Amino acid sequence: MTLGAVTLKKQLIMEKALELFAKQGFEATSVQQITEHCGISKGAFYLSFKSKDELITALIDHFMNQLTSDIDYVVRNTNKDDLLYTFYYTIFHTSYQHSDFARLLMKEQSHAFNNDLLEKLHYFDRLIGMTILSMLEQIYGEQVSETKYDLMYCIKGFMNTYSQLVVFYNVPLDLELLSNSLVEKTDLLAQHTTVPFISEEIIQLFTSPMNEAVTKDQILDILAPKIEEMEDSMEKESLVLLKEQLEEQTLSPVIIRGLIENIRNQPHCKWIAFLLRRYYEF
């Protein structure tokens, strides 16, 4: 079986499993039910995933990679005046696009996940927190130097609470109005909050692991198999050039930025684009 066929099989399993998970939940869905729903053998399943937990982790990675990469791109590439609105709109638009899995995460994470899966969610939560802090510093600067961590948690609260409206209720929602409403609320908090509760010392207790820089070898380990499994395309050519650049630096920052831009909208390359932006500090 070629790498391309393996990738397609994984995608099929993930899509069909999500249908079952959405109906029954994680715990109530067995590998047997997933294989029957996919029309494959258990052996074929275990060629793609070692366990149901590994499958769930892959689903979490796919959803959270999309969300984390999208908001990271917004924060790095949107002018200060539009940044807060674009940030909120991106959050809710992405949640809406992946509403089945977002709904499942909200329902299941409090009781169905083992420690490894919960740590995976905490990892992405810390990444998003760092992106929010960067956004606050860009928009408000020294004005929120004492309260930025409290503001970060307020924004996370807005994201979680209002995402439930987007995900759980089958009613048309005006995402532009919602985003503008939250911009107003955030501005009020930023301008008038004077009593901080969350200190930098508290933050460091559970964010310090995220301060480690992304390494070249970590990115290369992800790039190599991704290049092998992709069909010939502009995105694949860009990945090849980015891999060569990591191995032997010859390209200018402008060209590197352009190559990253080439891949960032390809769903299976968004995480690589995110890591490369962090590595090159774009």
Please describe the structure with a list of short key phrases separated by commas or semicolons.
mainly alpha, Arc Repressor Mutant, subunit A, 3 domains, 282 residues, Tetracycline Repressor, domain 2, 76% helix
Could you explain the architecture of this structure?
Keywords: DNA-binding, Repressor. This is TetR family transcriptional regulator. It comes from Neobacillus cucumis. Residues 30-49 bind DNA. This protein has 282 residues and is mainly α. The chain has three domains: 1-49, Orthogonal Bundle (Arc Repressor Mutant, subunit A); 50-211, Tetracycline Repressor, domain 2 (Orthogonal Bundle); 216-280, no CATH class. Helix content is 76%, strand content 0%. It is globular, with a radius of gyration of 20 Å. The two termini are 38 Å apart.
* Structural domains: how many: 3
Quote the beta fraction.
under 5%
Name of the CATH class of the largest domain? Mainly Alpha
Q: Uncertain regions: pLDDT < 50 for 5+ in a row?
A: none
Give the C-alpha Rg.
20 Å
InterPro entries: Homeodomain-like_sf, HTH-type_Tx_Regulator, HTH_TetR
Protein name: TetR family transcriptional regulator
DNA-binding region: 30-49
Organism: Neobacillus cucumis
Short description:
This protein is an all-alpha fold and 282 residues long. The chain has three domains: 1-49, Orthogonal Bundle (Arc Repressor Mutant, subunit A); 50-211, Tetracycline Repressor, domain 2 (Orthogonal Bundle); 216-280, no CATH class. The chain contains 14 helices and no strands.
SSE diagram, text form:
Layout: H1 3-24, H2 31-38, H3 42-48, H4 52-77, H5 80-97, H6 99-108, H7 115-140, H8 148-168, H9 175-192, H10 200-207, H11 216-229, H12 234-247, H13 253-263, H14 270-280
Helix pairs in contact: 1-2, 1-6, 4-5, 4-7, 4-14, 5-8, 5-9, 6-8, 7-8, 8-9, 11-12, 11-14, 12-13, 13-14
